[in-house]
Amino acid sequence: MIPSSPPAGASSPPNDRPSPDTAVYAYTITRWSPPDPAAPVRVVTHRDIAMLVADVDPAEFTEPAMIGLVRRHHTVVREAFEHGTVLPLRFATMFADDDAVRRLLRECHDEVVATLAAIAGHREWGVRIPRPQTAPAAGISGTDYLALRRRERDGDQLHRRLARHTSRSTVRQPGPGFRLDAVYLVPDQDEDEFLAEVDSIGGEVETTGPWPPYSFSELRTAAR
Amino acid sequence: MTADDLVEMLDRVITAGAVVHGDVIISLAGVDLIRLDLRALLVAMDTLELE
Q1: What global pTM score does this model have?
Q2: How many CB atoms lie within 10 A of CB A55?
Q3: Residue B51 lies inside a defined structural domain of this protein
Q4: Options 3.30.70, 3.30.2450, 3.30.230, 1.10.8; which CATH number does A122-216 get?
Q5: What is the edge-to-edge ordering of all strands in the sheet holding A168-171?
Q6: Which UniProt keywords apply (chain B) (predicted)?
Q7: B16–A88: do the CB atoms touch at under 8 Å?
Q8: Which of A35, A154, A186, B4 is surrounded by the most beta carbons within 10 Å?
């Protein structure tokens, strides 16, 4: 998955980055400048926004090490999220050097500020409701069967109930096993009501969270 | 972190989060490869200690 030939930009590294074997791994964009992230994480800033980065060897990103790298990504994002709003970046986002990071922050500045403002004071929650077992041909009453079918159809309705307490939501690609599989961006002040609504569904409900807003982070100006 | 939480975390870190192009030197293709190998990663993960 590492390009065999050096990509454009990496062949002429700036002075402070003598080795083309080094990349700047980007974890998340933030609006504030955190005081001192734990090494090796460091901060690259542009005006009022910042990116948490670390110098890495792209060759590290091979199969055996991958899970550890994913864990590290999440740890850095989660810790930053404990201190402020974060706009997490996709795993394995790397730049040639700090100048490239600053160029991106400069190009996306306004959208970053707007997006961070929109997701500030929110946490992400995932809700999955398994689909009831298919009714057996025998051994179930007609009333039970109809109730079962009705429950299978009400995923949309459940989603609307939950979404009332959220700012944004995304219904994931519906798998065969779920009545509802969705992620919600919940304002802090509405979290209790949201979770109470989840509890009120009853039955088997899988809730995960709170998460940094991974599922609600996008940058249109940079994703070209 | 339970196994379910770990799967949820992997799912988010690998398939969600803002995608940026431009100067990114590891291509999206790399990430797509990672996604394809997610199942293998999850299998391998069974042998790892859950935190």
Answers
A1: 0.79
A2: 15
A3: no
A4: 3.30.70
A5: A168-171, A178-187, A122-130, A206-211
A6: Gas vesicle
A7: yes
A8: A186
